[in-house]
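Suppose a classmate hands you a notebook page containing two proteins, each written out with its sequence and a corresponding row of structure tokens. How would you begin to make sense of it? This section walks through that situation. The first entry is reproduced here exactly as it would appear on such a page.
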Amino acid sequence: MKRFTSILVCLMLIGFQAIMAQDIQVSGTVTDAGGMPLPGVSIVVKGTTTGTASNVDGNFELPVPSGATLVFSSVGMKSQEIAVGSQTTIDVVLVFDIVGLDEVVVTALGITRERKSLGYATQEITGEEINKVKTDNFVNSM
């Protein structure tokens, strides 16, 4: 009888562990502040390598352990962390993150340095110079 009781207790503990370890299928939509869907947003379960990306319509589906936290991130947007809990649908609005770039100098070897630290002359290319388009025909330039 004692052996039967100990086996029953072990089976119950294994059953509870299996129930608690169940993944929840979480789905939702990722949009920007204007309500437009955001494709290619990275959605990762925090602390793991499990993740997915939003599709063209901003929709995603991901199996998540209960009680996990999802991290939503995209280039040019502020990252957001959301605790899943028992939710099966999560709609997220990401906000633009305005970041200015400092002056960067790229040397011939691909090493980036600050302009002040270099002992030689450098050239600067502005955005206007990059956007200038030469005409492909002499007649068009007249």
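The notebook's second entry, a different protein, reads as follows.
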Amino acid sequence: MKKSVIWLLVFAAALAAGTAFWMHKHNWKPRTITLQGTVLRSDKDPRRQQPIADATVTASNGTSSVSAQSAASGYFKLVLGTGVWPQTVIHLAVEHPGYKPFELTFLRNIHTLPRLFIAALDPVTPAVSPESTHASSVVSNIRVRYTVNQRSDTNIGSAVRTFQVENQGNVPCDHHEPCSPQGQWKATSTSITLDAGTGNVFRDVRASCIAGPCPFTRIDSSGFAKGGRIITASALDWSDTVTFLLEAEVFRDSIDSSERESYPVIFGQTLHFTLPPTQEGVSIEADMDGTPMVFPLGPDLYLSWADCTARTSTDEDRSTVYQCELKPGYRF
């Protein structure tokens, strides 16, 4: 009987030692995990995938949970626990008033790379298409006016272009350039070039991501930061397809007033425009059912015919990105 107990203890010790060795060899131990991603409004057209701010994002492993709010760009980052074991089931939930909840469950696997999470939320009430809206007021001929207290050149116009960077997220790079800044994900780089024409130069150039998973992009401003006759904007995307907006003022050397004018870009029911960080007195001029009207935007970003938001770009130029979505009863 005594020998049986001894052999049992020896077997248990050997089993524990073997288990410990196997866990060490396979790096099987609890770790802190970081989850990052972006919250977007769901749409089949990548140009209409607008970021959703202040969404509540919660991650849980069954024993602990952590929550955070999405930023103005839709970006979120969560650090879950100090002891999450491999093969643990992780539950990610996203909630925001006016949108259907988003849930995702996955295993923490030591053999797979971390993921960039894209939470595409469906509105509780689907948007009504302009074609199905009866007796809608038509908003047309839209222009943005603002003032800037700088430069003495003559502003003779503005340039507006959009471009897309098509890519598929969560694809390992495997050292096949281009890659994400950390070399982890497959990326795509796209460039766009504008020519101001003879005797003209570009000033106040703004390049911003306006749709898609913007937190996982990087804009190279070296080709337009100093302005000039010819400018080039390049963008790197290491997640899903994104849309960029490039805007600039065209100047000719002469005395000029400080008033500026810009034209927004319209996708579906939403208009987009960017302004330099030194802008003041923003107003929108538009024809309402054919009648010209002026709508001061003001610090509250109030428009009778649209709901507007603004965020400061995280890129080097620190421009302000505006988005205005039409209210029911209006169409472009």
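A careful reader of the second entry would note: Residues 16-28 have pLDDT under 50 and may be disordered.
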